[in-house]
Amino acid sequence: MHAITEDIDESSVEGLRSAESYAKANEMLIKVKVLGTKKTFWRLSDEATRISRKLALILRSHHSVGKYLTAPLQVSNVWISSSGNVKLRGVSFSDKHFSIERVRDDYKHLSRVLRALIRISGGDITKLPPDYKEFLALLRRDTLTMRDEFLIVNNSALLPMKNRTKVFLMLYDRIVTSLGREPAGRAKKNRILSKLPYKNNWLETAIANEQINQWVVKKIQYKRTPLDQLRLNRNVRSHLHRYNDDDIEEILYCVWLKLLMVMVKMLHVEGELEGTDIQNKFG
Predict the structure, then answer these.
(1) Is the Cβ–Cβ distance between 270 and 192 less than 8 Å?
(2) From CA 146, how far away is CA 103, in angstroms rounded?
(3) For 88-116, what is the mean pLDDT?
(4) Pick from 75, 109, 47: which is nearest to 282 by CA?
């Protein structure tokens, strides 16, 4: 855990700008074309997800030592340095009457701040991708526990696009290989597979996309099962350099928006997420 005193900056160091000023100058919700189709898609910029995660990390680090914000977090409290670091100004933390309700309140206020910043940047909240909507809903959950903070700060919605392949392959190995070695693990594996989305149409979606269909028409035969959905995604991601397609990760994200999100969520539910290295995949 990083030093929490570094997260608060009341000095006048040059290079810090208000989050409102930053949002006005930088789109946080960006429109991209889904290659292989004629569709377009909205996703958070990597800068937006980095800011989201940094703010969540700041709250979690204080919660870990039994402290919470003494007043609701506001957009005006958030400042961003020229190097991209996120700092808080005009806030204080207290350990007096610390409780899970205080923790929940902190995250609910964070959700409001993030939505406000997206609006300030010109983004339409109704166009948020499903994984980021799920992330904001998690922040507002009335039943949130301290254990859920690991899922908040290591949420799939906050991954930089360039790291999604590494995370998928790591989680694939955890679910398909590691959990398949013993009966208790196989039960967890089966529960995770049963919750994966797109059960009825993932293969049709793959065939309909010109880019992904390159892998579907190979000699490998895919069945319409959750495990084969993971296998196809694994096979595509394992041969990125061979096909020289730097955009394939964004394609996979846009086509199957909820897949990685559910993998991460279910590993958390089954108590397996903390055993992965996901916390080191956000740099």
Answers:
(1) yes
(2) 8
(3) 98
(4) 47
| CA gap 261, 155 in Å, rounded | 8
Other Cβ atoms closer than 10 A to 226: 18
Token pair listed for 26: 């930088």
In degrees, rounded to 5, the angle at the alpha carbon of residue 155 between the alpha carbons of residues 144 and 238 is 150
Kindly calculate the radius of gyration of the chain based on its CA atoms and give it in whole angstroms: 20
pLDDT of residue 214: 81
CA distance 103 to 1: 17
Which amino acid belongs to residue 27? E
Residue 243 pLDDT greater than 60, yes or no? no
pLDDT tens digits along 35-63: 777 788 999 999 999 999 999 999 999 99
CA distance linking residue 266 with residue 244, whole number of Å: 32
Summary mean pLDDT of the chain: 91
Query: Which residues does 32 contact at the CB level (< 8 Å), separation at least 6?
Result: 40, 41, 42, 43, 250, 254
